[in-house]
Amino acid sequence: MSLRLSSSGLKDGDATSLQHIPVMADTLLRGLGQVMLQNNSYTGLLFLAGIAANSLLFAAAALVGTATSTLTAIVLGADRASVRAGMFGFNGALVAIALLYFLAPTTLTWACVILASACSTVLMTAMLTAFNVWELPVLTAPFVLTSLAFFLSVARFGRLYPTGHLPTAGLPVNAAVEGVVTGATVGEGLLTGIGQVFFQGNVVSGALFAAGLFVSSRRACAAALTGSISGLLVAWGMGAAEPAIRAGAFGFNSVLTAIALASVFFASGTTSAIYAVAGATVAPFVAAACAAALEPLGMPAMTLPFVLTTWVFLLAGRGFSKIEPA
Amino acid sequence: MSLRLSSSGLKDGDATSLQHIPVMADTLLRGLGQVMLQNNSYTGLLFLAGIAANSLLFAAAALVGTATSTLTAIVLGADRASVRAGMFGFNGALVAIALLYFLAPTTLTWACVILASACSTVLMTAMLTAFNVWELPVLTAPFVLTSLAFFLSVARFGRLYPTGHLPTAGLPVNAAVEGVVTGATVGEGLLTGIGQVFFQGNVVSGALFAAGLFVSSRRACAAALTGSISGLLVAWGMGAAEPAIRAGAFGFNSVLTAIALASVFFASGTTSAIYAVAGATVAPFVAAACAAALEPLGMPAMTLPFVLTTWVFLLAGRGFSKIEPA
Amino acid sequence: MSLRLSSSGLKDGDATSLQHIPVMADTLLRGLGQVMLQNNSYTGLLFLAGIAANSLLFAAAALVGTATSTLTAIVLGADRASVRAGMFGFNGALVAIALLYFLAPTTLTWACVILASACSTVLMTAMLTAFNVWELPVLTAPFVLTSLAFFLSVARFGRLYPTGHLPTAGLPVNAAVEGVVTGATVGEGLLTGIGQVFFQGNVVSGALFAAGLFVSSRRACAAALTGSISGLLVAWGMGAAEPAIRAGAFGFNSVLTAIALASVFFASGTTSAIYAVAGATVAPFVAAACAAALEPLGMPAMTLPFVLTTWVFLLAGRGFSKIEPA
C-alpha cells in the first residue's frame, strides 16, 4: 500500500475520504509542507526527513502535533477542503516541536503537546474567522500564540520544567558586537536559517528543507535561499552576534517572509521579487525588536517576526498599484 | 414604592423612561447581573448582597461605578435598549471595585473611580463599534483595559497609592509546587472561584453569586460550578500554588468562560457543554500566561484570560460545523 | 521660482504633476503639516521653522524623512491624492526625528533613517487597508511602531548606539511627587507641550508650531492650547514630576487628541469641544500608563497615547447620538 503522494491539486474525492489511511497520511504530510506554505506531500516528507536527520524526538513530535491538530479539526467539523490541504496541520506540528524544544519531555509535557496542538486548531479557526474581513492569511500566528501561552504558564505551574533553550527573563541592554563573521558563518547560516523554521539549527536539516521546497516550487526554494542570505547579511551589517548569525537566528523569519511575498501571495515577477527582498531585509529588524520586547518575559519570538512583517507587506501590497496580487 | 424587578424581557416603555427611579434602579441591578452575562435584576440584587457580605466598601463602589457608567451612557446618547439591559453598567461596576481593591481609598482615588467608570463607557462604546464587524461581544475587556491604565499610572502619578493587593513588578521565574491541595482547598476554591469574579475571595460571596445565577438560569449556575471546578483541577494538576487555588485565582476565568460558552452564546446542548468544559480547561493556562506576561509591569490580569479565551472559542465556533450558534 | 504654497484645496492638475519641484516641495510641507493633522503647506513651513529654531539637525532629519516616505509612496504607486495631501509624509518626518533623537547620528543611523522612513510608508499603507473596515484614521501609529522596532533592535544590533534620551529598561515603581509646580512650570509647559509633538521641548518651537496651526485653523490652534493646558493640569493634580510637566511630557498627547476631536473628525461645536477636553483629560492617564508599560523595555511611548485615546473617542463617538460626525 503506497502513500498517495501528490504535488498536484486535490481531487474532489479526496476531501470526502479523510478516514482512509493513505489519504490521512497525505493530509498530514501536506500539513508539514504548509509550515513553509507548500501544499505538497513530497515536500512534507522531505521536511520530516530533515527534522529526523537532526532529532528523532522532534520528528515524532511533528507527527503527533500535525495529527492532533488535524484530527481536532475533523472532529469539530472544520472546512474539509482546508483540512485536506494541510491547513490544520502546520500550526500543530510547530507547537509540538516548540513545546519539546523548550520544555523537558515529561509525561505531562506530552499531555500538553496534545492539548496545545488541539488548541492551535481552535485558535487557527478563530483567526481564520476574524481575518476573513481582510482576506488576510493567519500564517503561523496560532502556533506562536499557543506556544507562548504554554511557555508563560511555566511561571505559575510547578510541574512544567523548561529546558536550557528557554531564555531567562531579563531587561534588554544595548548589544555589543560579538565574534567575527567568517565564510563559515555565512555558509552555515545560509542553511541553518532554513533549518530554524522547524527549530533545527542543523545544516543537513536546512539542506533537506531546501530540497523539499525545490520539489514543490523552484521559485519558493530560490526565495528561501535569498531570504536566508538577506537576513544574515542585514544582521551582520547591523552588528548582531556571530553565534546567532551562524545558528540561523536572523535567517528563518526572512526565509518565510521571502517565500510568502515572492512565491505565494503576489504575482510572480520582478516586482514581487524585489518586494520580497525588501521584506526579507526588514524582517531581521522586526526579529531583533520582537526578541528584545519578549526579553523581560524570558520568551522566544519564534516566527512572530515573519507573521508581522508578512501581514504588513501583504496589506500594504493592496494599496500599491505597482504590486500585483497573485 | 417597590423596585420593578423583572427577570423577563424588557418592555418598550421601559427604554424611554430611564429617568424614573425604579426603572433606573432596575437598570443598575441588571448592570450588576451582566458582570456574569445575566440580564436579570434579581440576579444583580443577589450579586450586590454577595459583595456586601464580604465588604460594604466594595458594595458601595459597585453601585457608584454602575451608576456612573450607566449615566455617562445616557448623557452621551448611547443605545437605549442596551443601556436598559445593563450593558453599560457591568464594566463600571468592575472598574470601581478594582480601583478600590488595588488603590488606597483616598478622595483622589474616588475621583478616579468616577472618571474611570465614565471612561469604561467610552471604551465600551468604541469596542462595540469596532467589534461590530465580527458581531463579537466585547465582554469585560473595557473594564480590564480601563483598570490597567489607571493602575499603570501609579508609576507616574505620585498622588495614587497602591494597596498591598497590587503585585510588585518583577521578572517571571519558574514556579515550584507550593503547599498541599486538600479537600478544604477544593471546597473553598469551588466557591471563591465564583466569588473572585467580583474580587471577593469569600465562600459566602461565592455562594450568593451562585444563587444569583440560579435565579436567572439553572444552566448558567451549573456552568459556573463546573467551570470553577474545572479551572481548579487543571491548576492543581499542573502544579499551581495551593493558596492561589484555594483563593479561587484559577477559577473565576473558567467560571465566566463556561457561562459564556455553555449558556449564552451557543445553542444549549451536549456539544456546547463539552465545548464549554474545553474552554474552562484552557482558561487556567491563559490565566497563568497572562499573569506571567503582566509580571514585569506589576499588573493583575483580572478577567483578561476569560475575555481572550471566550473570544477565541466564540470565533472558532463559527468555523466548526459541530458547534451550533444560539 | 517661488514655492506654490497653498492653504486651499488641491487642484486636479497638482495630483498628476508630483515630479515638478514646486509641487513636490508643497507636498513635503503638507506632510509636515499633517503631523498635526493640517493639510496646509504654510503650516508645514512654520513647523519646519519651529524645529529649526531648536535644532538644525532635526530640521534636516524632518525633511529627509518626509521626502523618503513620500518618494517611497510615489515609487510603489500609492494613492496619488493622498500623497499630494501629505498623508505619506508625516510618519516619515516623525520617524526620522525620533531616530536621530534617540540614536547617535552615525552613518549607519542615517541609513536607518532612510530605511525606517520608507518602512513607515509600507506600514501606513498596510494600516490604511486594515483600518478601512472601520473607516478609522491610522494617525501616527505607523511612526510609533516603526520607531519602536528600530529602538528595540538596539538590544541585538551592536552597531546602533542609543543617546541619553532613550530610557534605560527598568521595572516600574510607584512614583513620588517630585518638585514644585510654579507659574513658570505652567507657562513653559503650555508651549513645550506643543513643541514635544515634534520632540522639541522648546518654548520658541512650541510658539511657532502654534502659529502654524493658527494659519491653518484657529479652532485647531485653540484646541492645541486647551489640550496642552488640560494635560498639564491633570498631570499636576495627579502628582506627576515637575520636570516632566515643565518639559511638556504630559502635554503633547493631549494637544494632538484635542486637535483631532475638536477640529478635525467631529462637527465643530460645543459638544465636540467638550468631548475633546474629555479626551485631553484622559490622555495623560493613557500617557502615564503607556510610559509605565514600556518601562521594562526601556522604550518611549511617543504619540502612542494620542493614537489610542483618539481611536477610542472616535469609535465611541459613532455610538453616541450626542456626538455629531464632521
Could you explain the architecture of this structure?
Three copies of one chain form a homotrimer. In chain A, about 65% of the residues lie in helices and about 0% in strands. Chain A folds into two domains: about 15-165, Ammonium transporter fold; about 170-325, Orthogonal Bundle (Ammonium transporter fold), CATH 1.10.3430. The two termini of chain A are about 35 Å apart. Chain A contains 15 helices and no strands. With about 325 residues, chain A is mainly alpha-helical. Chains in contact: A-B, A-C, B-C. The interface between A and B is large, with 37 and 43 residues.
CATH superfamily caption of the largest domain in chain A: Ammonium transporter AmtB like domains
Number of strands of chain A: 0
Q: Unreliable segments of chain A (pLDDT under 50, ≥5 consecutive)?
A: 1-15
CATH architecture classification of the largest domain in chain A: Orthogonal Bundle
Helix content of chain A: 55-70%
Strand content of chain A: under 5%
Tally of structural domains of chain A: 2
Look at the structure and give the CATH class of the largest domain in chain A: Mainly Alpha
CATH fold name of the largest domain in chain A, please? Ammonium transporter fold
Largest interface: A-B, 37 and 43 residues
Please give the alpha-carbon distance between the first and last residues of chain A. Answer: 37 Å
Q: Which structural class best describes the helix and strand composition of chain A? A: mainly alpha
Q: What gross morphology of chain A would you assign? A: globular
The residue-averaged pLDDT of chain A reads 94
Oligomeric form: homotrimer
The DSSP helix count of chain A reads 15
Q: What radius of gyration of chain A results from the CA coordinates?
A: 19 Å
The largest pleated sheet of chain A is described as:
none
N to C succession of SSEs of chain A: HHHHHHHHHHHHHHH
